[in-house]
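[job 4417] fold queue: 2 targets
>>> target A
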Amino acid sequence: MKRVRLGAQGLEVSALGLGCMGMSEFYGDADENNAVATIKRALDLGVSLLDTADMYGPFKNEKLVGKALAGRREEVQLATKFGIERGEDGARLGINGRPDYVRAACDASLARLGVEVIDLYYQHRVDPNVPIEETVGAMAELVAAGKVRYLGLSEAAPATIRRAHAVHPITALQTEYSLWTRDVEQEILPTVRELGIGFVAYSPLGRGFLSAQIRRPGDLDDGDFRAFNPRFQEGNIERNLELVDRIAEIAAEKKATPAQLALAWVLAQGGDVVPIPGTTRVSHLEQNLAALEIELDKQDLARIEEAFPRDATAGERYPDMSQVNL
């Protein structure tokens, strides 16, 4: 497994990580045994960056990840997040970046994960009611206390990133990035590259849509949050399928799946970009990792650009984009 430096503070991770969110919530029913087997297989194959958050489940996903990496902690760069506050019943309580909450959330995550230190600790969403300097200041205290090694932000705007980085070095920014979500290319990627911050791309397969396996809203299981996502709804899904089918044609020429080509495209955007595709199946994990073997030259990238231009996707990323806090 190829390894890359994430940020300028010394963190080194596998070139492809594993997003664990869907193992506990959001994409319909999940099987814990399959999830644990998938994580263990990922470690066997050299995947070292595991990504979770306290709000996934809520709280279940961190416990699951902790269970899966028991006895193999040294093989993993473990990333988790705080900031989207939820109750035990799953109720969404809002965005919280208050320093006292930061400290309490970290202690709770350490306990659920069963570890003594978190490698990469993200603020999941920026709290508009708390100055970023106060939140990152509390996160820096966690580094000084030995509870956290590196700091990250998720879905933060360029000005916020700069203010945060001035308080304590930010190692990684995690934001959605794929063929169908490319707005980060305008200001965010240039900002993090200027500051020496690594970029972690979540949903690099467009929440599974770029696999070309989801053809209509009815293909989604009951309880799958994508049914409420504008891009998967009638009126948009048909237009987006046209784009994906063009990618599928190019993938077939390269004897690859559409998902593999989509991942290879993200990987081709720079060595400082680390995708974290999520999956709950070992077979899909292995298929995703095969994307590391696909090389795209300038001609390939130009063809993909022509087939799937920036801003061609129909529909917003979320039903309510105000929750993203960019």
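>>> target B
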Amino acid sequence: MIKVENVSYSYNGKEALHDISFFTKDEMVAIMGPNGSGKTTLVKLMVGMLKPYTGKIEIFGREPEKARNLIGYMPQRDAIAKHIPIRVGDIMMMGVSKKRFPLREEKENARKVLEEVGLLHLWEKKFSSLSQGQQQRIMFARALAKNPSLLILDEPFNAVDVPSRNKMLEILKERKERGMEIVTVVHNINPILHQIDKILLLNKKCISFGTPSQVLTSENLREAYGAEIQMVTCEEGYCHPLIGDEHAG
């Protein structure tokens, strides 16, 4: 269960988020909005990396910093310094254990999840030597490796090809069916639109929160993006917004 109540946050006196509130339980939620809308700031608040200036956040009834053992977090790929010669296996173990000498079961689980995304053969490779898509899938696997109750992903599909993205979505669907709560920041909602339960449309404030049909309206999108957004309805009846915003915010 995630509960966000009247949360605001500022950087050096400049407001990044204003009075954000939403509640979700047993759902897959997408956070979308234009560049600079506060999406990454919000997920950092949810994992306890930042503290709200006002309001509060509860993760399974706890403050975020006290719920970190229940959270799997995938930051944007740039969070891993490229000049550090760290191996893929080491990155995976960072996701499952804080011990200097991890348990055998922890290593086996990390290898199992990496195999699930099709990259176990890269265990001994340097992370910096890999393609952007491979790095992204490894960061995704690391977030899953400790089998969290809540999975928070920040732009997980950037630089990932379509087959790999579809595999990641299959894994997310399976984890959700097993009871995992999932929150993902996306710049393009369309590839996951049929998978999600709720959308938080954000531009420093909550423009709308609800089901895709409730949120993805011309009025809401105009308010969030400051322009008219063309919509296309697919055979399943979902309205897909054609948004040219291709970067994280």
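[job 4417] complete. Note on B: Residues 245-249 have pLDDT under 50 and may be disordered.
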